Amino acid sequence: MGTDMALVSMGPMLKRAQAAGYGIAAFNMIDYNSARAIIEGAAAMKAPIIVQVSVKTIRHWGYKPIATWVRMLAETVEVPVALHLDHCSDGDVIRRCIDAGWTSVMFDGSSLPFAENKARSEDIYRLTEAAGVGLEAEIGAIGGVEDDKFVAEDSAILADYDECLEFVKNMPNLAVFAPAIGTAHGFYKGQPKIAYALLEKITAAVAIPIALHGGTGLSQEQFDRCIAGGCAKVNISTMHKHRFIEGFVAVRQDKPKLEEPLPFIIGQYDAMKKDVTDMIVAFGSAGKAAHAAGEDAER
Ligand SMILES: [Zn+2]
């Protein structure tokens, strides 16, 4: 790898990951400490990484602080780092992220009727193509809670195969496609029923990497099958939030009289980073930084 790297767009590296059969972790950052744990965890594993941000996190910190933190951290490591906007149905937020330096965005029109989702996704696609950033788009309904949207797990709707083909037809350069395949956001109650056959059928027909939402709590076997089936982007949000809170609280439980704040921040960082490195191993992306960046071919 060369020296420090600027932010990269996730599309090309997801294509390389899908072709080689590994998954790139996409963690939802919470604050600077969290972004640092994600990026430095990836650097420790020589792995490509996607730092993604939910709309409510942007509303809390602002666009510029987040873009500045992530770019600055990316410049200190030698692995490719992408900055991505997670589930967003607001075109204005998408535009502001692009202006602030995000390298990809997700338009989530999955709550809209199919034709409207397709039309609005294509509008955003034209915008992202013109701006040179990647786009993730979703169809079907992924179960669980994402920000203020709640989809009951038993009413989560699998993506329809024919609609998938129709949906992506006019978006050939989509960075990643998120069809609902039976996974859910949050912690699973009981075993998720993942529609592997549907996933494989979509992957065989569509030359676009697939996103696996609701990665928290899936087993190694489930990760392996999803990644082998075409999922190149694996989202982890719930476990990262859990480590953020528990990492901090564990320091207080261990040292009830501690008055120095930094050990709390460090305990929180260590807990988050451990999960990042564990997931990178689980997804098979350890040591893949140069491959994902497209630098293997140059040797
Ligand atoms: Zn999601």
From TrEMBL:
The residues that the entry says bind Zn(2+) 1 are: H87, H185, H213
Organism for this UniProt entry: Mesorhizobium sanjuanii
Please provide the record's keywords in A-Z order.
Calvin cycle, Metal-binding, Zinc
Its taxonomic path starts at:
Bacteria, Pseudomonadati, Pseudomonadota, Alphaproteobacteria, Hyphomicrobiales
State the free-text cofactor note: Binds 2 Zn(2+) ions per subunit. One is catalytic and the other provides a structural contribution.
- Entry-linked InterPro entries: Aldolase_TIM, Class_II_FBP_aldolase, FBA_II
Q: Which GO terms describe its biological process?
A: reductive pentose-phosphate cycle
- Name under which the protein is recorded: Tagatose-bisphosphate aldolase
Tell me its cofactors. Zn(2+)
A GO molecular-function descriptor: aldehyde-lyase activity
NCBIfam families, per database record: cbbA
Catalytic residue list: D86
